[in-house]
Structures are given as structure tokens and as C-alpha cells.
């Protein structure tokens, strides 16, 4: 009993310091829900809710010594229940089959795809001959070969090819379908036909989107350059005018976060407004003697933060930043300390309860990792270095360097695991651009204030010069040799272990914090030992990737771009698809690419004649891969395993390997969850060689 009582006493003695652990265990509960190998039913949730209520009763009536473990269990259950509730609240139709035809809808968002095509998102969707209850709430369509001016709220009509959002590009990979489900995005596709205006925007609808568009167009018209497009993206969140080349340079220089409207952007704007009002009012004696300028500035800064949240589209990082600003400004109004670990924890709790799926999004992970480490780092150094040990003139430089180092160290593991790359000169790029970013945001605010009286030109010029400097640094750093180092995708336990190690080291008090070295070491060992599948097949069968000594070779030079890019990035490979296509591994004509997988002769068919070539290919190979539906049984004494569209519709993307002479199939779709609707699932299977099996018989 003493062994059990000791940790309870340690936790009880730490009362008052444990609240930052609440979002940690809340997040663990959410992660458990997403990791379930089945879709919970009503009985599961009823039992979970009953257990949650029971924990509350025991907490009120039980021993105080039991309070911490009871809260931990309650947080875990709350995370599970919140995730399940959210999943059912956002449930919306997803397209059940491929669709080609007329699409009518109202424009709610305009951006660009990864291929630099203009892209529109529609709601109020109408699809030809499709019942309303099966029509997606939102669809996203890339406009290939056309640059048009589309306003939010306008109703448009076009002919498009649509499909349901795809699942992971490989087993265990990023699940786009899951993300689309929580965004109520029921179909994605493209069009090459003209987009026709069906109806003008109805008055009073989509006011914020319309305002964002108007502001963006005004800024780009006043500053018609790439720097103006960058500044517009940073100020309003509208990145549709930014070129793909600029976006890539920002990524390769670790400056893409400047475009993500998050903590930095929100802090620049609200901080500038707060300082402007506080010190501006202080210069007016009659006002300064009668009102608390600090609190007046806090109220005004809150209004600006709320407006900026709505204007930017309220993504996860922006919501996190807004919640942090609310907590800080609330502390100013209540004469409390503004920035503490408790304020971060409170923001995380609110966000996780409202949008549990954000736990799995890079924006949440990067944003909170940077914020937590910055607060912990500055709190630690405040006691040792910053108290009258540095001259005042050195403080701005020291703060800038320390902020970049801490934020970079905190986000590096999550960025490497998500984007499979490390920007070697990212610290240098941030040191050279962050001060100019603050100038850009301040100039943007001044331009907005001065525009009604026609005096915005100087502020816009200053904003453009700051944007030019940032883009110059981005392109220069991205062009340096070794600017980007590719990193292999870690296994599923690496990031949770790394996160636990970091959280433990920061939140725990005393010598036990050094125990964080254990999960840290385990995670690094697992990451260094990570391996990649030998053979990958895309969910539509159009692309096959074979790992070789020189990297993964791809079966086609173009097409299946998402899967190709995803595989190469996860491999820790900086090559593009045409380069991977030229690698050794495949032979034969484009319509019948032959390869060997550990003794298994295989052929990947494609093209219009693929269906007719199955029997011939089966006579030559043990495995035939075809992106169309083929006959379930191939006649003849030779036989072969046919992986066709019928099989792939059940398995999703496939990873293949050979073990003890048997072919192992690992499907991406191996569990049934709510975002998959009624799609069938497969479990791992293995096959003996067809000829060997016949000979044995």
C-alpha cells in the first residue's frame, strides 16, 4: 500500500501546479478515440458518460488523495466523449461514386491547389439527378487552365468531375478523407470547362468572406507585386494570388509560418493596436488622468483580435492564438499576470473540446509546441539571466534570437514528421525576417486606418518593402546548397513519445523531470530504425512505387500526383515524380510496366487496353495490377493474383512485402470508422505463389 500511496501523495502535494496537465490527458482521450479499431455505438458512449458521472461523484465524496487520478480518468473519458460527439455533429453526406456533370453552388472560399491551380469551395451544392440527402454539403473544385475572378457569395454553374475524398495514400499515412469529413467536405474534383455566373451574391450573406475578398483585391491593386500578394496573404489569409514558386521558397526556408495566420500574426496586430492606444491615450493628459488607458487598450485590442479571427477564416492556429489573446487581455483587465502556462492550458482545453480533431492537425501541434516551449524557456531564463544581467540595448536582439531558437527547437520534430524535411538554415531566415514581419503587419494596420482619408500610400509602400525583403531572404535561403534535408517518416509511436517527453520535462517539478530522457531516447531510436514499405500501390491502382537501392522508382511519369508526392516525401526523398520514374526498377512499355518484388514477377497495366491485356500479363507474371475492374478469376493453368479496382475499392492503397516466400498485402483501409461511411474493409492477407500452389496441389 505504501508503494501505491507514495505517487498519490506526490500528486497531492503538487496541487495548484497540475492544471496544465488537463489538456494533456484530454488530448490522450481524443487520441484514443481516433485510434479505436472499431466505430463506437450508442452503448459505448452511454457507458462512457455514466463512468464520467461516476468519477465526478467519487471526486466529490471520496478522499482528497484520490483527486488527481480521478481527474486524469475524467479527462481521458471527456476526450473520448468529445471526439465522438463532434464526429456525429459534423456528419454530412460524402459522394458515393464518381460524378461527372453539372455542379451548381455558392462560392465560400477561393485558394490555390498544390499544382498552382485556382480552386473554389462551394456550399449550397446542387448535383444533377442526385437526391438532396446524398448531395455533399461542400465541394472543392480545381479550375484547370483558367484564371477567373470569383467573389464569395456568388452562385456559379460549371461542369466538373467529382469524387469522394480519398483515404490514406499508403497504410498508416495521412488520411485526407478523415480530415475532409470533419470539414464537411463531401467531394473534390476539377473542371476544364468555363465557370458561369448563375446568380449574384444575395445581400447580407457571407459578409466576412466578401469583406476579405474586397480587402485582398484592394491591397493587391494598390501593391501589384509578389510582395503585395504575400502581404495580402499574411494580413487577410487570402493566398490565391501567391505563386507556387514563392510558396515553395517559403517552405524551403522555414518561413511558411509567416503566411499561416497564427500566434505571430495575431500578436503583431493586437500588440500594435494595444500599444498604439495605450501610449496614444497617455499623451492626452485629460484622458490619461480619468481613464485606465491600459484597460481601454485591452478592450480595443480584443475587438481587433476578434475581427481578425473572423477575417482570416478561423483555422486551428488562429483560434489558438485568439484564445491566448483573450486570456492575456482578460488578465490585463483583471490585473493578473498575462502569459502563463495555465493560460496556454486553458486555450488548449477550449480548443480540444470544441474541435477535438484539431489534435491531429499540424497547425495545432506546431502552434502549441512553440507557445509552451517559449513560455517555459523565458520563465526559466527570467530567473537566471534576464533580471538585470543583460544591458537594455542587447535585450531586443537577445529576445529575437532566443525566440527563434526555442520556437525552432520546439516545432522541428513535428515539422519533420509532418512534412518530412528539415530546413537547415531556418534559424538564419527567421532572424533576418521576423523583425520585418512585425513592420509589415504594423504597416498593414496603419494602411487600413488611413485608407478612409486617402493617406494609406506611405503605409502601403512600407508594407511592400517589408514584403520584398522577406521574399528576398526566402528565395536566397531556399537556394543555398543543403537548404533542405529530407527525413524519413517516423513510426506511429515516435511523435507521441517525443511529445510526452517534452511535456514531462516542462510541466513536472523536481528531479523526476529527468525521467523524460527515457521516452526521448526510445523515440529517437524508433525514428532512426524506421523503414519504408518495399512496394506501394495507390488507391486507384494507377501508380506503383518500388523501393530500390537508389530510392523509390515510380511506374508512371505523370498522374496520381498526390500519391507520388506523399510516398517520396515519406521516404525522405527530395526527388520529383519524373526523376523517380527514371530510376531503375521498372521495364517494358508504358502500358505494361514489369518489375520483380523479391522473386515475385509483377506487371502494372495502364491505359485503355489494360483490361484486354490481363490474361496475357497473367501468363507472364505472378501479380498483375490494373486500375480498372478485371474478371475475378483469370482462366488458364498459369493463374496469377490480380489486384484490380474491385479489390482496391475495398483495401484502399496497398503496401506489399514478401515474407518466407509469401506475398503480404497490407491495406490502408483496415478498420471501419464513421468517416468511411459503408466502405468495405480488409485485413492483412498473404498469398503463396500461384504456380507453387498449383504444383503443390
Biggest sheet descriptor:
6 strands, antiparallel
Distance separating the two termini = 63 Å
Helix content: 40-55%
Uncertain segments are 633-637, 692-697
User: Over all CA atoms, what is the radius of gyration?
Assistant: 28 Å
Number of strands: 18
- Structurally, the number of domains stands at 5
* Mean model confidence by pLDDT: 83
**Spatial strand sequence of the major β-sheet:** 11-10-9-16-17-18
What tags apply to this protein structure?
single chain; 697 residues; alpha+beta; OB fold (Dihydrolipoamide Acetyltransferase, E2P); 6-stranded antiparallel sheet; 5-stranded mixed beta barrel; 18 strands; 50% helix; disordered C terminus
Brief characterization of the structure:
By secondary structure, this protein is α+β, with helices and mostly antiparallel strands. 50% of the residues lie in helices and 14% in strands.
Sequence-ordered SSE layout with sheet pairings:
Layout: H1 2-13, H2 21-35, H3 42-61, H4 67-89, E1 99-112, E2 118-127, E3 138-143, E4 155-163, H5 176-182, E5 185-191, E6 196-199, H6 207-222, H7 226-236, H8 244-252, H9 263-282, H10 285-288, H11 293-312, H12 316-333, H13 341-354, H14 362-384, H15 395-419, E7 421-423, H16 426-450, H17 457-478, E8 484-486, H18 494-507, H19 517-528, E9 535-537, E10 544-548, E11 551-554, H20 561-570, H21 577-581, E12 592-597, E13 600-605, H22 614-620, E14 623-625, E15 641-643, H23 645-651, E16 654-659, E17 662-667, E18 685-687, H24 690-696
Helix pairs in contact: 2-4, 2-13, 3-4, 6-7, 7-17, 8-17, 9-11, 9-12, 9-16, 11-12, 12-13, 12-14, 14-15, 15-16, 16-17, 18-19
